[in-house]
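Re: your question from the hallway

Yes, I did run it. Sequences:
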Amino acid sequence: MFSIKNREQIDTIIIGTLSWLVTLLIFFPILWMFLTSFKTEIDAFATPPSLFFTPTLENYALINERSDYFHFAWNSVVTAVGSTIIGMMIAVPAAYSMAFYESKRTKSTLLWMLSTKMLPPVGVLVPIYLLFKDFGLLDTKTGLTIIFTLINLPIMVWMAYTYFKEIPKEILEAGRMDGANVFQEIFKILLPMSKGGLAATVLLSLIFSWNEAFWSLNLTAFNAAPLSALVASYSSPEGLFWAKLSAVSTLACAPILIFGWLCQKQLVRGLSFGAVK
Amino acid sequence: MSDLTIKNLRKSYDALEILKGIDLEINDKEFVVFVGPSGCGKSTLLRTIAGLESATSGNIFLDETDITNAAPAKRDLAMVFQSYALYPHMSVRENMSFALKLAKIDQAEIDAKVEDAAEILKLGPLLDRKPKALSGGQRQRVAIGRAIVRKPKIFLFDEPLSNLDAALRVNMRLELSRLHQELQATMLYVTHDQVEAMTLADKVVILNDGRIEQVGSPLELYERPCNMFVAGFMGMPKMTFLDVTISETINGKVTLKLLSGAKIILDRPDLKATVGTSLTLGIRPEHTVLTTADAGLIPARIEISEQLGSESFVYVKTSADEAITVRIDGEQEVLPTGANIGLSIDSGKCHLFDSNGIAI
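Structure:
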């Protein structure tokens, strides 16, 4: 028979081990990509894979020589930040009206917005492509920003709505009685009260836009191509070069990974908001 | 001057009518309490006056200005909410100065006003705390402070004490009374608690099912209820209602017969009802007296007794199963359940209601 104390210790060990295993499973591909980026092409192909090797920076040097990393990085920054700002400007008022002036159709509107995310993007590729062509938006940062805004908007509205729902209506009413107009109500009461959740929304939108590949590949060529397009450009033409591909992927992921790392506190608090309180 | 006049005010949500035509006059400096059972529309009435709900029809006038469709911010009313509704991201000082800042009053004046209000409400040492670091009573005082600093035309209170525990509620009730004296302001107050209504109000408005049943001073409503609803709503425990028929009228003396056969004689020369009419007799617990079994007008049996110390409530039943509540002094001995007793009734304090429940 185990005593209760022993039992608790064993539980802790089992849960601890399991969570480490899951973490490793998720993290391993990233680690492997990172390691491979420092291998020579020959090491990268070796079977069985070599765990110990002499690290080299030649892949990074070659990428720097062959393509203008900062051109792509700048496109990623502009489109991710731009689409997030525009998205928030639409999502906040939309979520505000849905959360505090609920009508009979609010719930179904929300569901409908989310349902657009269930559509396979490739299903609307042709019409969107043609629209972009007619409006001269192909291979422009404006066009890419618009498409990022549209694909992230349902999730941004949904998240903002959830955070706003947590705020008691009376506090906004108190503001109204105190003489606040609708802008003062939003900027001085609503936004400061939900800043944790909104920060998580902003982060998620940045991450999703940064990592987006389908529309980036199909709607841009070079001028507006973001980092995901740069990664793709290393995958095909001259056969597969694992080491170089890993290096460019590492370069593409690094900024957003570091950014996410720095903001993880906000992100976790925002995403578990309401669940733990 | 802050007179409020409400004319035929109606409010519906789709097919559901919440306020069914409210007419009311509220005078300057009056403390008016809206009271009624839950769902009677008292909060909706207050929120419509505040402008947080729009009126479906009818008008609200504040000092002769029609404010029916004005934005809440433009009405110059302040509201204290049941849930306090403090701004959690602001300190007590910022909470109280928020409205003044929006009104673009200069900082020195704001500081002076906030200090004054803090003085009145004893909030001085708490000014730099956030609401989450305050107790329920303190939060409520901040909510009141937020209203005071604005010197509004009318204060609106929406069940402000119902989130507080019993002891604190009594304290805050006294404090609100003192505040009303000190500020000499018009106050509208919603509650479902008749003790708050009785103790605070200059004027009580009893609402039921979207209509005003009666308006008057607390004692007026207690002593002269206009119908059975008001009679039953005011007073704790409730007034006893008994079905009676008139068996005789001689020289203004009306003899009423109870179901159990007992007879009560009232001196009501004004009563224009014929022999045989069915009526309802209302009698308050404190106007009923317990006697020994063979004395008294109505023989009855004790069902349950509640001893509260200062007073006791005895619930008795007659042979025809009529339930009667009696209030007796706390020091008086309470007989055990099942004991046979007699009741006598203070006939001068009886209320009579016709078949529609209207006092006659």
